[in-house]
Amino acid sequence: VYSFKISEIIYIEGNRNYQEFHLKDGRKESIRISLNELENNLMNKGFIRVQKGYLVNYLFIRSITNTHVILLNGNTIPVSKKRHDEIIDQYLSISRDNNLMMKIENN
User: Collapsing DSSP states into helix, strand and coil, what is residue 59?
Assistant: First the structure.
């Protein structure tokens, strides 16, 4: 049994049946569960599906470009071109609900 605080998870990277949790303290934990199941459980907790294989915790997003999400730790995650506008809308909606602001680059 794994237990993580939502605020400890930076992002989740999908790899078939195993998902790799990238945590705030630098640890990575692989768990056997589908990314779709995780998305259903986390979508109302501030996680955004930015690409087929990634769920990102909005708390750790520094900026969003046309091609990547840039995280506070400097890591970059590819953004789906088809879902780019939806990703921006999701982020802005979550940010409004939580009185947060961020930078969106339109390259």
Answer: helix
